[in-house]
Design brief:
This protein is an alpha+beta fold. Helix content is 37%, strand content 16%.
């Protein structure tokens, strides 16, 4: 029940993606690949059978963020997410640890604390396209969502999660995305080319989830002048 209350509170803050999985499916992958990404579960009596939850958002976060953001800091959206997640935790929640996507490894400016793309793929939330776009692609939202945090809880995972098997984009869309990525790589400082790459990654109904103009421009520039409702 406490986890359901946590989910509801997150949704009220615009964090509308809440996907549970077994932390062991993530740790098993990285144990043979890059152990620095393995999430420590020694504190939980369930160890690698512990419940983990991916928290993220679609475009639904934008009005909540615009209303409550602190523009005095470098990245107001990161702070908003941290505050929203921590404020949503209830007193009866099991013991837990939080891993935010913007956090970096000790002594590193670039390596994240957790691989959100791999967690998304291994948990079955969204397909990680590491050939054409390096985006995670959801079967409903397409590329129009963001991965913000993983919560590991001292509670046993009892569901059935499996990795995503297929890219939900058509072969034509995959080719268009790959070509758009190649162009963006040739013009890496032109953030509009990166938007075109994301736009090329189309599903049948994913455009209805496309970020509004201000959210999209802020996502790629972090320019606070775009922190406004469309």
């Amino acid at each position: 029940m406490s986890v359901n209350k946590f989910k509801h509170a997150l949704q009220n803050n615009g964090l509308d993606i809440f996907h549970s999985f077994c932390v062991g499916s993530y740790n098993d992958f990285f144990a043979g690949y890059d152990t620095s990404f393995v999430l420590n579960t020694s504190w939980s009596k369930y160890k690698d059978k512990s419940l983990a939850i991916i928290i993220g958002n679609t475009k639904q976060i934008w009005p909540h963020f615009v209303k409550n953001c602190d523009k005095t800091i470098y990245n107001p959206l990161d702070k908003y997410v941290v505050d929203a997640v921590q404020d949503s935790i209830t007193s009866d929640m099991p013991a837990h640890k939080l891993y935010f996507s913007h956090q970096r490894m000790p002594m590193s400016q670039f390596k994240p604390m957790v691989s959100m793309q791999h967690a998304s793929h291994l948990s079955g939330l969204a397909f990680y396209d590491n050939k054409n776009s390096y985006l995670c692609i959801h079967k409903e939202y397409g590329p129009w969502f963001a991965l913000r945090c993983i919560v590991v809880l001292e509670e046993e995972y009892t569901g059935n999660s499996a990795p995503c098997q297929e890219n939900p984009c058509s072969l034509d869309a995959q080719l268009s995305t790959k070509l758009a990525l190649e162009k963006a790589m040739q013009n890496q400082d032109d953030w509009r080319e990166w938007i075109k790459m994301r736009e090329a990654c189309k599903l049948n109904n994913s455009d209805e989830w496309k970020y509004g103009t201000n959210q999209l421009y802020y996502h790629y520039t972090l320019d606070k002048k775009y922190i406004e409702l469309d």
